[in-house]
Amino acid sequence: xxxxxxxxxxxxKIWICKKCKARNKxxxxxxxxxxxxxxxxxxxxxxxKK
Length: 50
Known about the structure:
This protein is α+β, with helices and mostly antiparallel strands. The chain has one domain: Rubrerythrin, domain 2 (Single Sheet), CATH 2.20.28. Helices cover 14% and strands 16% of the residues. A three-stranded antiparallel β-sheet has the order 2-1-3, with no helix packed on it. The protein starts with a helix and ends in a 9-residue tail after the last strand.
């Protein structure tokens, strides 16, 4: 996890649409942009720049 645990907790509540890659709120059942109903949780691993 990152340097700020409160921020990490908020980031982990985001769901990503598998079709259009839009960000959605935690309790979303379908995408707010395209209506697609397959969502995935945002990756919890923070990748460092190389």
